[in-house]
Amino acid sequence: KFFDLFIILSEKTTVAAGLLRELFSNVDRSKELSQKIKVVEKEADELVEQIIDKLNRSFVTPIDRGDIHSLTTGLDKLIDRMEHIAAKIYIYNITEISEPAHELSQLIVEACNEVNSAVNSLEKLDKLMPHCEELHQYEDKADIICRRGIQSLFKNPPDPIEMMKHKELIEDLEDTADECENIAVIIEGVVVKNA
């Protein structure tokens, strides 16, 4: 049952990432798409409550209780970050997305797909480490894109307010990639404890 709930929750990360990517390609629809991501985030919050409630009522769990809690909150934080980015695009009235931000949004789609694959493999410990290695690589790529994007902003500075918006957006996207890597670290801990 825990694994089934994890799978449903991790699928919400892929839905949110796909909607975020769609938003980046259609900023003129930022209100509509940010609201759709907010719906996904609320659905995820309900799942988190179910998992935590089940954890509190369970005497025996399939993996360490702390790992169940960490994985649940990690997936929740990942979705929260994507919802935060979508809301910020709408609130800041961002009308153009920089190339590095586009690259990062695509990388987040791929990383969330990898998170989902890892979560779907939780019951097969021997299959988990390749997913974790991929997630570490995505985070490394995100760091490179983030640094390049911020450097580009300072080389060709736009209006100071626009610069602040775009810098924050790039950093928020990189933080989202960090959350994917944090999930990899949690899963690695599960492997170590149960191998």
Automatic annotation (TrEMBL):
**PANTHER family reported for this sequence:** UPF0111 PROTEIN YKAA
The record's section on InterPro entries has: PhoU-like_sf, Put_Phosphate_transp_reg, UPF0111_domain
The entry's keywords: Coiled coil
Entries under Gene3D superfamilies matching the protein: Phosphate transport system protein phou homolog 2, domain 2
Show the coiled coil region(s).
30-57
Q: Which family, according to UniProt?
A: Belongs to the UPF0111 family.
- Organism for this UniProt entry: marine sediment metagenome
Keyword Coiled coil present in the record's keywords: the answer is: yes
Supply the name of the protein. Phosphate transport regulator
| Name of one Pfam family that matches | PhoU_div
